[in-house]
Target: Cytoplasmic protein
Amino acid sequence: MAKPLMAKATAVWLVDNTTLSFKQIADFTEMHELEVQGIADGDVAAGVKGFDPVANNQLEQSEIDEAEKNPLHKLKLKYNASAEGEEKRRGPRYTPLSKRQDRPASILWLVKFHPELADSQISKLVGTTKPTIQAIRERTHWNIANIQPIDPVALGLCKQSELDAAVQKAAAKKAREGQAMSDEDRRKLLSTEQSLSSEDEHKMPTAIEGLESFTLGEADPEVTSKQYDKDSLFNLPEGSDDDEDESETGSR
Model:
């Protein structure tokens, strides 16, 4: 249900001018029932002037009358065609001042690990502008040398579900365009839940193929049974001195 304008002031008016229950007012204004009770006790919203929802075309008087007769009846906000779609967020996400310095690190992470995401998707996820994304993508950002990629979910700039939805949308777009994707790209396009629940064995990188049979097993017993000392390791075989003398005299 949509939230009425000036919800707290509307709750003040309903408490003062109707016999509605605290729960009915709380459900209509999307407030907690105890908060509405606090308004009635004078502990909450002190000095707030009531906002008449009937006079401001947000609620029908017949709705209030029916709700007063039936405590289980829920108030319904009056439909306003001009307010359709007003609750949808437009433009980039608002980022608190304390987290704005973390946005370049999250942008670099998204560009590096999810290159399939469009600039508009990154802009909505972390609340930034396209010129900033382009500068980091092309490594022309003034502080690019000091930026380290960090997951935006870990920084609290977006939710994991929002990131997964954006990745899935990018995957669907690539599939429609018929672009070929490598196995690594397909793994990147999986959501966190899918990647964790996957039972497929991870492929071994080609750079270390052939080492899977290498084990640190026990040494050969025939080799370990031999005893070596420093004389047997460093002394030359017998006759080597004579061979060297003969080779020297022959060369002269």
User: Anything to note?
Assistant: The chain has two domains: 7-83, 90-194. Residues 90-194 form one domain. Confidence is low (pLDDT under 50) at residues 200-208. The two ends are 108 Å apart (CA to CA).
